[in-house]
Specification:
The chain has three helices and 18 strands. The chain is mainly beta and 424 residues long.
């Protein structure tokens, strides 16, 4: 997504204008004066300068994936039971992003849409304002990435795993929210260089519309440092929000769900997060490790614990669970070439109060309480500045309970994915 501007554009414009002048004169038309010529050049230069402020680009993910019937693929439909697809594969556009922005005098407007065979979706639309004096504070307003942890704001075109972790895609299914966030980051010359603080208010509905009078609070504190051969960073995140209750409200009492005595119209949605990352140059290539641990309270339904979003709207009873999850991600470049190997382990326990055969014993306990872990193995090849190829295999394991039908054993739901990314 590189835009090249001619270094000697002024000289080129002068030749073009001179040629136009001579051509006009030869045809017997009125000769341009030197002042008129310079004025035209100045106007053209201004237009070129304005064009430099405009950016247009994008990327797309075209992929093929295969899995058993229980596997969850991210393109196409699920298995067709009418023709008995016990094993199935699908081809589709996972992402097709068009990105445009315009920046002028510290003010940037950013717009991003997702175009796939499923339709067109707005995924980013915000205004970014940078303070013109100290250049240490900024404000985002509109629809943008949630400033929580490492993976939520991580650009999907830079992903070194096929998708973000299960815990992240559960508590932030859309990765985005409507609202306003202020960021403060001291300049490089400051003694506090490397420190960044972000805080703001969000609607908490992802890409969905604002649906209540309550706003959620989010905060993210990070510190990043770079030495000769090592880059490292640490961070902490906080999310304090509410989810509206449309009907009954259930909380855990001991090992079972019980109707809450508090009939308040909102259930707590509270997350705490810790993160760390390190990248080091080795003789065999650059090695990178990242990790996050997230825990808190999550409202959901009886069989799902996903947060509100564009495709997930809770209209029935609300079930409040305490959860935990995280991931560890290793990436090794091969001898400083364009080839990389990646290994990722992530886990998500939607209900830390129940485990194993305790799930399914009491009323309302079910598949929404099942914990999952995934080991991902991947190969990445950066063919050019525009093309990237990835092969990724996910080995998914679920918590087992003899008291829950369908989960007496580990589901056969591993997924193989081949992806091509084109960046323009």
């Amino acid at each position: 997504m590189t835009i090249i501007y001619p270094k000697h554009f002024r000289l080129l414009l002068s030749f073009v204008a001179l040629f136009t002048t001579l051509n006009t004169f030869s045809q017997g038309q009125q000769e341009l004066s030197t002042d008129s010529l310079l004025k035209r050049i100045s106007l053209l230069e201004q237009k070129v300068s304005d064009m430099k402020k405009l950016y247009v680009g994008g990327f797309m993910h075209v992929q093929w994936s295969a899995s058993p019937q229980a596997g969850v693929q991210r393109v196409g439909d699920g298995p067709n039971v009418l023709v008995g697809e016990s094993d199935y594969n699908r081809v589709g556009i996972r992402r097709g992003r068009i990105i445009t922005s315009y920046e002028d005098k510290g003010l940037l407007g950013f717009l991003q849409c997702d175009l796939t065979e499923k339709g067109v979706l707005l995924v980013d639309a915000f205004i970014h304002l940078q303070d013109p004096w100290l250049k240490t504070a900024s404000l985002n307003g509109g629809l943008f990435s949630d400033p929580f942890g490492l993976e939520v704001p991580f650009a999907t075109f830079n992903l070194e795993s096929i998708e973000k972790s299960r815990v992240i895609k559960t508590i932030f299914p859309d990765d985005k929210d409507l609202g306003a966030v202020v960021a403060i980051q001291p300049r490089a010359q400051s003694s506090l260089s490397g420190l960044k603080v972000e805080a703001g208010l969000l609607t908490g509905n992802g890409l969905g519309k604002d649906a209540d009078n309550y706003t959620d609070f989010i905060a993210h504190l990070t510190f990043n440092k770079t030495t000769n051969r090592v880059k490292y960073g640490l961070g902490a995140s906080l999310y304090l929000g509410k989810v509206i209750n449309h009907k009954g409200f259930y909380e855990m009492e001991g090992k079972q769900f019980a109707l809450a005595a508090d009939t308040a119209k909102f259930a707590d949605r509270i997350y705490y997060g810790l993160e760390g990352q390190m990248s080091r140059q080795l003789s065999i290539g650059t090695f990178t490790v990242r990790g996050e641990f997230v825990w808190g309270k999550q409202p959901g339904t009886s069989d799902r614990s996903v947060s509100p979003g564009l495709t997930n709207i809770i209209t029935g009873d609300t079930y409040l669970r305490r959860f935990s999850g995280g991931y560890i991600h290793l990436v090794q470049n091969i001898l400083n070439t364009e080839h990389s190997l990646t290994l990722k382990y992530d886990w998500y326990d939607p209900n830390t109060r129940l485990s194993g055969n305790e799930i399914g014993v009491s009323a309302f306990s079910g598949k929404g309480d099942i914990a999952y872990s995934t080991i991902g193995l991947g190969y990445l090849y950066r063919m050019s500045n525009h093309v990237r190829l990835m092969a990724y295999y996910e080995m998914v394991a679920n918590e087992k309970s003899r008291n829950l039908v369908g989960y007496e054993h580990d589901l056969n739901d591993n997924v193989l994915t081949l992806r091509m990314q084109y960046w323009f």
